[in-house]
Amino acid sequence: MQKTKAKVTRRGLLKGGAVAAAAGAGTLAMPNVSRAQTVTLKMQTSWGATSPFMDMARHYNERATAMAGGRLKIDLLPSGAVVKAFQVQDACHKGALDAAHTVTAYWYGKNKAASLFGTGPVFGCNASQILAWIHFGGGKELYRELVQNILKLNLVGFFSMPMPTQPLGWFKFHVDGVDKLKGLKYRTVGLATDIMQGMGLKVTQLPGGEIMPALEKGVIEAFEFNNPTADSRFGAQDVSKHYHMGSYHQAAEFFEIIFNKGKFDSLPKEHQAILEYSAEAANTASYGWAMDLYSKDLQKLIHEHKVNVYRTDKSIMLAQLASWDKVLKRLNKDPFFAKIVQSQKDWSERVAFYDLLNSADYKLAYEHYFPGKLPS
Questions:
Q1: To which CATH superfamily is domain 169-249+308-343 assigned?
Q2: How far is 147 from 282, CA to CA, in rounded Å?
Q3: For residue 347, which of 87, 116, 43 has the smallest C-alpha distance?
Q4: Whole-model pTM?
Q5: Relative to the CA of 301, which of 70, 112, 179, 241 has its CA 20 to 30 Å away?
Q6: Taking the domains of the chain in order of start, what are their residue ranges?
Q7: What Å distances lie between residue 136 and 90, 129, 143, 254, 316, CA to CA?
Q8: How many angstroms separate the CA atoms of 124 and 349, rounded?
Q9: Mind giving me the DSSP string for 208-250?
């Protein structure tokens, strides 16, 4: 067979190059579209439908869904839709729920170290700084060890939203000294239960939705929940006119966002990353939203509902610290509990030293521009 030699011309060479360039440009211009299949996760919260915490759960979900381009959807349900508020962890572990939005204090009955990831002792750090400990001080590794290695739970969890200090709470009279607390039937959760019991209160643990019925039945006569917005939404101002701000019982809490580990591990890596980092994205949204809403609702409580708002008496805060000392001495007998406490203490000694030494005196500045506004 005779071989024929192709004739190469300048025009043909240029034409072929143009076609190849166009094809290459088309390839480069293709958008980087997610190849992950659309997944819908069923998430229940520990919060009632009207709770501001449901809004914060939506902050998280909206960011996760947007970042996934609609290929990751979260069906958000209020407390009680599938299980009760304190049961969401078990439901996630068993797969009845894919996810939950809750707090670790709600399951500290399984291991009191759980409460250290949100309602632990105050060594000088605030909630934002303890959340920083979770991310950069070894906290997330200790949390994983507790959940997966010690308790053998089929869960993965992340943390979001450093909560402002939770008020001491609502009372039927002005609690102007530590002696006024003794014998009161009081609602709180987590290690705060141990702290307040150590101060002579009779403590009952209840989710937020059960506080009002418990008051009506006389199960409790004083309580704390979380903040002016959440408290006012379930009618605290209708049963009490004495609101005490400032406390060491829950001064560094944040939300725990958990997933069934089997379900989470089955997701594409990009979805796993989105679910993890959406917790960080929700920090900014939820905290800014809280500052706006909590401050407005505190003013409404004062001016519209005629609630007496006090700064908690120093004798109460000193008694809380003393009670913490006793509780820690007892619970530190558990080596794992003690390991977490020491990790937080080491972090706080360094981080709080820097912050307290360096921070401006914000109270001094406030009183300079708004003299007489703060209650004594």
A1: Periplasmic binding protein-like II (3.40.190.10)
A2: 23
A3: 116
A4: 0.87
A5: 179
A6: 39-162+252-292, 169-249+308-343
A7: 28, 10, 13, 16, 32
A8: 8
A9: GGGHHHHHHHTS-SEE--S-HHHHHHTTHHHH-SEEEE--SSS
Residue pair 307/239 in contact (Cβ under 8 Å)? The answer is: no
* HEC assignment per residue over 291-337: HHHHHHHHHHHHHCCCCEEEECCHHHHHHHHHHHHHHHHHHCCCHHH
Residue found by looking up tokens 């299980």 in the block: 83
Give me 355's structure tokens: 């912050």
Q: What tokens appear for 99 in the block?
A: 């996810």
Residue 109, Cβ neighbours under 10 Å: how many? Answer: 14
Q: Dig out the tokens for 61 from the structure.
A: 């979900």
For residue 14, pLDDT beyond 60: no
Fold of 39-162+252-292: D-Maltodextrin-Binding Protein; domain 2 (3.40.190)
Residue type, 89: Q
Q: Would you say the CATH fold of 169-249+308-343 matches that of 39-162+252-292? A: yes
Q: What is the pLDDT of residues 148-205, one digit of tens each?
A: 999 999 999 999 999 999 999 999 999 999 999 999 999 999 999 999 999 999 999 9
